[in-house]
Fold this protein.
Amino acid sequence: MRTIHTDEIIRNIKEMCIEANHYLSEDMDKALKDAMGTEKSQIGVKILNQLQDNLNIAAEEMIPICQDTGMAVIFIEIGQEVHVEGENLEDAINEGVRQGYTEGYLRKSVVNDPIIRENTKDNTPAVIHYSIVPGENIKITMAPKGFGSENMSRVFMLKPADGIEGVKDAILTAVRDAGPNACPPMVVGVGIGGTFEKCALLAKKALTRSVNERSHIPYVKELEEEMLEKINCLGIGPGGLGGTTTALAVNINTYPTHIAGLPVAVNICCHVNRHVVRNL
Amino acid sequence: MDKYINTPITEKVTEDLKSGDYVYITGTIYVARDAAHKRMIEALNRGEELPINIKDAAIYYMGPSPAREGKPIGSAGPTTASRMDKYAPTLLDLGQKAMIGKGKRSKEVVDAMIRNKAVYFAAVGGAGALLSKCIKKSRTLCYEDLGAEAILEIQVENFPVIVVIDSKGNNLYETATLEYALQK
């Protein structure tokens, strides 16, 4: 049994909120740089160059990469040999978010109720996904999610007879409809299987995977590669202004499902696909 | 084609702008997004005056991150314009000439643009740090209680945008996408 104090969790989450919003992860950074060498449209190259300038300014001057510093999505994997000491864990996570967004000059984008819509002024609450895993560590993944792309995400409850072709159509439909709204070049997270809510969670989790890491399941890896190529033939391009770089990666996660169903979720993320991971 | 324009943005200026032009804007523009638009339209419905001078105005659909000490503004990139589609035609009919945002617009908005000779510019989405460098001054004009959604008046210098939909209704999102959709 190992004891972890919530003060440590608060401090880490605070730092992760600030880090995620100012520095892109290495895999995303590389994917954006590589795109400059392959993009065929002149205007597309110009926009990709501006995105590089933007990343440099963000890091040097500590200005968030995007003004939409997101709703804080946090995956927390708690080892079953860990004892959490201090305050209530959920309160601690939200305190970390509160401190990160307030002290880090990040935008407060959360409203207290979807209809009444009063800004909570500290970007809480976070959206937290807990899981219990073996071991004596806590793994935290902080993924602030902007809503330009979140709004373009979809869930399709397909029929088993729709099969893999139905899945392909669903992905292309979501990306085509998203177009310029989702700030391309985008990263496409896909969840296939499970239930209505499980496939959405799979898709969200898929976005936290490295963009240069393919699925270990052979047919899923092929599907990821085929869909990336098809998406980049849609012509949407950087900024939606035409070009061959519409997506940087398609990350697909799967899960067993029911005999009667084929749920598919497509969670779209813009080129500011932020995720920071820490192990405590 | 590169063009440099100053605010206010008159009909004479918009008539000369074509879909696909790179435009650099200098002058005063307003910043307003979802909640501010809703409140402005509600004010009009009650017969009240708008809190901004809408004639020949440019509205930037944006909600910045907080400014650090000594800086006029924080990160300041465009938000998705379609969420303002419900409100934009009314403001265009009152004289607004330019909208700055990102993403698609509705047919109702495009019709109102043609009717009023207005333009829709896109700024690069997700380039908020870069765009903030072209904003020299910023002040909250009204609706401060809305936080990041308050109406601001900002001074911009060579603020880079692209004409997506011009005053004739030509739409770069449609034409440019088609061009590259044909390529493998």
Q: What stands out?
A: Strands of chain A lie at 2-5, 71-79, 82-85, 127-133, 138-145, 154-158, 186-194, 247-257, 262-269, 276-279. Residues 2-20+65-145 of chain A form one domain.
